[in-house]
Design brief:
With 581 residues, this protein is α/β, with parallel strands linked by helices. Helix content is 57%, strand content 8%. The chain has 20 helices and nine strands. The chain has a seven-stranded mixed β-sheet, sandwiched between helices. A two-stranded parallel ribbon has the order 4-7. Helix 2 crosses helix 19, helix 6 packs parallel to helix 17 and helix 8 packs across helix 15. The radius of gyration is 27 Å and the shape is elongated. The N and C termini lie far apart (76 Å). 44% of the residues are buried.
Length: 581
């Protein structure tokens, strides 16, 4: 297939990826983690958030204004103290927002556009990886799956640092494949080796989970190095390069490259160790009892595989709908696993494809093994959060593309041929892409992968009585509680219907119990007229902990607000209505 014939197909895939990622980019509400991204990326800190006072919800928009004087050094210092993430993504996001500062676009769109654009670049990168390791056919199919995957679309529409490390994983795997070819041929290409070192070094400063990807690549190097040593010893494999390097130097090069990457991690290592002990990551602790704790990580990893291609509505659905949709997802995934497995077995018959299959398969298994080791040995179960599968998702996507590139009806494996020869299996790829596209549309329309804590549902409940004034207060114990409260305040402003009085919001510190919160509510002046609905968001508080009555400081009066037992909700955190007549 000529370049002229290949380019239109790849461009079409990229256009589909752009359309589906930028479609309804502002539809979903900002949730807690995206608020954190916004604060740091705009060059702000938590100290810019007005606390211990009652303010209109529109006032909190001022926190999300670009600070053009903020530098990467300042953002790095803020992230090191107020977050548990490395700084590079936030620095690059700040540059992106600075470049778009003069455009008449909403700040939410600008914030999410950067990860969405990186998600499109990742499609092209995956095409390159599969073209390098397998064939143009596998490259087209892998890129198409990446473009239409509901999981990839979900990550691309998150204002978080997921698509950027995912792109770097793809680039690292492409470099690793070429390094393995160099080791096989006993040659040294400086651009390949130093490029691989640079990508793995930068990846650590984008997301800590890139460490798992780096360790998995080291495992691949060890496995392949041992296999090639066995080949050279027992099968006398000869290098194809006309001027091969000495065997001793060939074995030394991977160790030097790994050591160089590790050296680049040292400056940030003390910060990483301090972040590992922060309370912000306590929520990933294993809390399931007995047998469930033993099998939950395994089941959650399998569910992550399913979401790579198909995602039907399960959240906030009736039991019957959830069972039907879950069953359809399981049946389709079993068929796809069989189909991809058969294709990979056929592809294995081609000697030149085996290196790519081994690379991607060992990489996926190594990353998943690390997830399981962290869950079982350290008690921190990251498998319960599907979005963290972004570390090995590109390799899984590449394997699916490679497996589907082999028509089952053919007697010989297809490697360098065009997009033909499907035989009886010609509908497999269109079916997979159709299912993935439908799933992605459900993601974009907020039917699947709904935002945690569901700010839109919380705001809808609080705004259901437009005839009453509205005051919302959230108790905070740490920075994450502030970010959670900001997500609710922003959504209240977004959904605020025309009414005489704008909703107001207040942050009140919660220390050593909720007694101080109730006292502060009675002391902080608030200007809203009666009748008033007071909603109290209280992270960590049980329903019985809400007092039957609360006092407010309302226009030099102290009205008593009475709890409404019928208006208690919990979506990860509880929120309770008090009526103040």
């Amino acid at each position: 297939m000529t370049i002229a014939k290949r380019i239109p197909g790849l461009v079409l895939i990229l256009l589909v990826g752009v359309l589906i990622r930028f479609w309804h980019l502002e539809l979903k509400p900002l949730w807690m983690d995206e608020v954190i991204t916004a604060l740091f990326s705009f060059g702000r800190t938590y100290y810019d958030v007005p606390l211990e006072q009652v303010l209109p919800v529109s006032n909190f928009e001022q926190v999300f204004r670009l600070n053009p004087t903020a530098t990467c050094a300042q953002i790095t210092q803020t992230v090191a103290i107020q977050s548990v993430h490395p700084p590079l993504f936030f620095c690059w996001m700040h540059q992106w927002l600075s470049g778009l500062n003069g455009l008449p676009l909403s700040w939410v769109w600008k914030l999410r556009a950067f990860p969405a654009l990186i998600g499109v670049v990742a499609i092209a990168a995956l095409y390159h990886l599969n073209a390098l390791a397998f064939s143009r056919q596998a490259a087209f199919i892998g890129a198409a799956i990446m473009a239409m995957s509901p999981f990839a679309v979900y990550l691309s529409q998150e204002a978080r640092h997921y698509t950027l490390p995912m792109l770097f994983v793809i680039l690292a795997l492409s470099g690793l494949y070429q390094i393995l070819c160099d080791l096989r041929d006993r040659q040294f290409r400086p651009l390949v080796w130093f490029g691989w070192v640079a990508i793995n070094s930068l990846g650590f400063y984008i997301h800590y989970f890139f460490l798992l990807a780096f360790v998995a690549q080291v495992i691949v190097l060890m496995v392949e190095g041992r296999r090639q040593t066995a080949d050279s010893r027992f099968f006398l494999t000869q290098p194809t390069h006309p001027s091969p390097l000495p065997l001793s130097l060939t074995r030394l090069l991977p160790l030097l490259a790994i050591a160089l990457v590790c050296l680049t991690y040292l400056p940030w290592l003390p910060t990483l160790l301090s972040h590992m002990n922060r309370p912000e990551i306590d929520w990933v602790k294993v809390n399931a009892p007995g047998l469930l704790a033993a099998i939950a990580p395994l089941l959650q990893i399998v569910s992550g595989w399913i979401l790579a291609v198909i995602a039907l509505p399960l959240e906030n659905q009736s039991v019957g709908v959830a069972i039907v949709n879950g069953g359809l997802m399981a049946l389709f995934s079993l068929w796809l696993a069989w189909r991809v497995g058969c294709g990979l077995l056929r592809l294995w018959q081609t000697m030149e494809a085996r290196l790519g299959i081994r690379l991607l398969a060992v990489f996926c298994l190594a990353v998943m093994a690390q997830f399981l080791a962290i869950a079982y040995l350290l008690g921190k179960d990251f498998t319960q959060v599907p979005r963290y599968n972004f570390i090995y998702f590109p390799a899984l996507c590449a394997l699916i593309g490679a497996g589907l590139s082999q028509p089952l009806s053919s007697t010989k494996p297809v490697m360098r041929w065009g997009l033909n020869g499907w035989g009886r299996d010609r509908y497999a790829v269109p079916l997979v892409l159709l299912i993935a596209t439908v799933s992605s549309i459900l993601v974009v329309s907020n039917q699947v992968f709904q935002k945690p804590y569901q700010p839109e549902q919380v705001a809808g409940v609080m705004l259901q009585e437009p005839s009453s004034s509205l005051l919302v207060t959230t108790a905070y114990q740490d920075f994450q509680d502030i970010a959670l409260g900001l997500s609710f305040a922003l959504q209240l402003e977004r959904e605020w219907p025309p009414r005489p009085t704008e909703p107001h919001f207040a942050f009140i510190a919660q220390k050593d119990g909720y007694g101080r919160v109730w006292q502060q509510l009675a002391q902080i002046p608030q200007p809203l007229p009666p009748p008033l609905n007071l909603w109290v968001i209280a992270p960590g508080l049980k329903r019985i902990g809400y007092p039957p009555q609360l006092s407010l400081n309302q226009m030099n009066r102290s009205p008593v607000c009475t709890i409404d037992p019928s208006q208690h909700y919990r979506i990860g955190i509880p929120y309770q209505l008090y009526r103040c007549p």
